[in-house]
Amino acid sequence: MKRRLLFTQKCRRLFALSILIISFIGGCSQRSSDPLEHFAGEPAFKTAMSFYDKAAFDSAAYHFNILTSKHPNDPFAWAWLAKAVSYDGDPDTCLAYVRKALSLDPRNALALVLYANCYNPQFRSVRGANYDTTWHWLQKAVESDPNNGDAWIGIYIEAMRRGDIAYMRTALSRLKESGFLTPSVLELNRWMLRNLPPDAILITSGDMDTFPSEALQLLENARPDVAIVNWSMLNMPWYAGAIAKRYNLLLPIPADSLENYWNDIHAFSRMTSIPVLLLNPKHKAHAEDAYASCSISEEDRIANEMLIPSVGIIQWWLIQNRLGGLKRQVVFSALCASDLVNFGPSIVRPVIDCGAYRRTASTSDTLPDWEAMRRSFLDADGRRFVGKAVAKSDLSAYRRCLPEDFAGAIPYAAGKRYVDYLRAKIDTGTMNTDEQKKLQHDVDLITTKLEQFALAAGLNASIRRK
User: Fold this and answer.
1) pTM of the entire structure?
2) Mean pLDDT on 146-150
3) Left, alpha or beta for 273 (phi > 0: left; psi -120 to 50: alpha)?
4) Domains in the chain, please, with CATH?
């Protein structure tokens, strides 16, 4: 009887323990597999993300670290900590957190993408970094989560490096179909491509004008005559070579020799006959004085020993176009404004506004190209720019920092400048009646479109009426 009682008590304990284990597993399984929803309602996660979305990575990492202390066995806590550290921190530290996450869940897509990035020679990477390892772990990431936008962007770039156009299309197709490339951003890029000059070389600024325009070109055959070139990626020799081959572009130096000149601005200057003053925006001289001697500080002199490769190539294209050696016009994305400011006085001519894009002026005149702006806005439908520019699923801190409705804000700002110009022209009173009627018709038509862009940009009624 005593044995039976002991056996019964043991069974009850085992049953109670099994109930606890099942409850724990059930509680874990109830958490979402979406990285942004997994810790929904968790104050520490909410605080960490508030800093992360402002690109305040030290503060974000501090609060993600608190999250790992509260949830030491949750792979997402470690993966988010690694994500914050990846922007500012030591890649070895990031990799340690990634490995911790993967030890808890080998299929955690957020951690898998970070693992791939840790071994990517393109970034600040760990010892032993190589593209094959990056490729392997990016493949693992999309196997785990077929809608992971960061993984598909990585795959697209690596497929480009490998010259695999078919896989580039696959990656862009997944980005578009999943909504990672949002409808409003696609429309912004569609508008930009539609208005470019024939056979243009389009210099893009970042993710929001590179991947969407590439997707439209490769998936919709939009403007196959245009060469799409990302400004920052042009600093990588493999990318410069790949772009030159894909679009049949001339380079100042053969692609396989470009890397030899990256650390020597003077050698590049001698090879291309481009004055050093035109190759680095840190020089304070104006373009008109570039061929003359210029006194610069010792600090500037040392800084300018390093060539910025993208500046060298773009400058060479601009000069060759002006001399007639390059028939393709170099134009800049409407999103390139800050980059052009940094490019500053070293550019050959001022950059002027054309509405959907920017180009260098044929003279020293800095006025916008009003006729190009008119064509851009007569061609646009502001209602198609409505919607958030950044996908909800986007995990990039830098993209998440962007204004939600910037797809409508960019054409609105340019359109407002054009309408103000037309009104000022009418107010001069120097035109005949027919000319005034024509301009007033344009004002009325484009003002209606501005209202659409303003709504797309989320501007309130009082701003729109100004």
Assistant:
1) 0.84
2) 95
3) left
4) 29-177 (1.25.40.10), 181-369 (no CATH), 380-466 (no CATH)
